[in-house]
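Weekly puzzle thread! Below is a chain. First person to post its structure in token form gets bragging rights.
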Amino acid sequence: MDKAGEHDAPTAAVVVDPDGAVSGWSEGGRLLLGWSAQDIVGRPVTDLLAGPAPSGFPESQEIARGPAGPVPLRHRDGSVVDAVVTSQPLSGTGGRGLGHVVTVQRWGRRPVIADRAFEQCPFALGVYDPELRFLWINASSARVIAHSEDQVIGRKYREVFPEFDRTLFPERDDKPYTDALAQVARTGEPTRLITVFQPRGSDYANAWATSIWPVRDAEGTVRAIANWGFDMSAEYWARQRLLILNSASGGIGRTLDVIGTARELAMTPVPRFVDLVSVDLFDEVLRGEEPPAESAGHPDEAVTLVRAARHSAQDGSDRAAGPTTPVTHSAGSVAARCLTTGRSTVELAVDPGQGGEWAFGPGLAADPAHWPPGNPVIDHSLAADGLTGRITVPLRARGALLGVVVFSRLDRPEAFTADDLILAEELAAKAAVAIDNARRYSRERTTALTLQRSLLPQGPPNQEAVEVASRYLPGGTGTEVGGDWFDVIPLSGARVALVVGDVVGHGLHAAASMGRLRTAVRTLADVDLPPDELLTHLDDLVLHLAADLRPDNHFQPTGESGATCLYTVYDPVSRRFTLASAGHPLPLVISPDGTRIPVPAHPGPPLGIGGLPFEATELEVPEGSLLALFTDGLVESRERDVDQRITDLQHALGDATTSLEPLCDTVMDAMLPDRRSDDAALLLVRTRALASHHVADWEVEPDTAQVPRVRKLAVDQVDAWGLEEATFVTELVVSELVTNAIRYGEPPIRLRLIRDTALICEVSDASSTAPHLRRARAFDEGGRGLLLVAQLTQGWGTRHTTEGKTIWCAQTVAPSAPP
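Winning reply:
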């Protein structure tokens, strides 16, 4: 025969009578084997065989189904042709047997070998009609769906597998497999997808890469839908683990908060990895303290931790227990052992060796050699709790144990693998470092905040010049403590200094620098320097501090230097308000009727610049005026400019007659957002004025003979105020101070008595020479008067003015009625 056409040779059809003789021969037989009908009809069909006849040939069932291998047939030219032989019986009237119809095809012909290749393909193959009825599946597909070909042929896919109309992972928004088949049948366009489902009889969810395409006839009409798929579970789950780790990289440790970080750890792997996560920490960790030493625990001792976070996929809950809610892990428990040994433990509800091929999925660490020592632990009691598995991992960072995290599976049927343990430990390791960072930050922030609060005034001083209320709020979580401060300092003459400032930078350095500046301001205020001179001295101090902090070499870091400060003085006798600013926002001054009083001043340079002057501004304010001193953290905003924020602050102050304490809360709530990056201080002051009958003032002639008269005037005034117990001391100090002014000072000389929280005696003259204490020797005639004044009164000092100086002293007396 023509060998060139053997691959196109048709199928031979042979009719065999009941006696096994050939009674019919097709043209395809002549083309395939070379025999004509005259040559073969009437001869036994076994004459066509080139080897032993199969048992029962051609009636046997094996021949009817098609042999597993080729049947050797004899060609007319003597060659052997390997062929595929099938046989079907012929029946006549009444079921009488008429023989068989035998079909013969060349074994090497493409359709035949392709059938065998598809049948034996390790991938799952299937063909469906346009209505999605099964037409054919191969052996691999039958194993996957746990149905034979005979069970599904002619049935619709959805009828056989209704469970495949849902995906195991709704968050991935995958189309059900049947929807993809229907789409290809409808559109005629091929598609590819990954489906995740649990094979029947398996305890493991598999991921399948599937390709679906239409099968068209010669006219292009879609006659069938074909698909192939292979199990890519190992690659899929590895990718899912990487995605979870990637999510953890951006989702864990976003805030420097221990509880917040614990919540992030609990939420990240749910539901893609596990169904329930709980995070238990040592109470010391929550308080920002050092965790207990590793050797402190023992597996035979109970361990008490704090449930910092818990997240469940079942109810979508995200709970963090309060720090007063302990969780006790009993002696010998897995958590107690993990805290003692520092090693993770995997618990499984069933022995993975009993789960068969699919217990862990193909190749996914079913071999015990893949597990670290001591894992996994088979605990059948887990099933009673509804768990399929549990991983307990100690939280360790920088050599310290912080607590434990427990990953549990409830809804997922598959057991944990060794790769899952690696993922759990990676999540725990990342979270442990973030939790420890938050713990350390909390400790440092608490230390700095404690230092800062200890340096701020704990309560208003005893004075009657002003009513005071204040608030200080540090920056929000994730920011360091700043250097904002405020102060209220009683001065001589019933006056009061009001101070607010801000040190550049954050952290302990800023808090310490703030303490230095506050102490310096108090020291300079005791000298009674005017505001502009005080800021000049403070500027020099900041320059010296910056020089002290300068590193010896460029490898040694240093903190920032510089600060702003607003120093003001209010005199309740004259109702004069004097102020000077070193780069600090000016105060708001609001009259009792609610109108804003302009402050004709300009802030000078910040402290630490050096060489530039500061200017003092003085204005008279009505009694009952509201003064608002603040730091820039109260008015700075990314959304609005400072001028607009100052206007907002004025509106927030509202009625100037409102009680100051609630007004402070109202202003802070209105001006500060929940998330703030800087600390803020607010000092609200309502001015008072001393009534005229609480002040007595006399001019003194520069003659010592006037001393008895002046002394009597002072004693009469003290008696009029009902302060008879202060008469003796007042008579003595007035006599001494007035005598000194007449002898050593310059006219004009004035005596003033002020009835405030103390009885204040002031003697002023035009000389700038200040007296000082000295020790008088045994035979000295003078030098004891000022020492006597210092011993008999509760305070004394010198205040320089533009006209000269004022010597003052104060005696503690019973509180007076409000002026």
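Puzzle host: Confirmed. Bonus trivia for everyone else. The mean pLDDT is 82.
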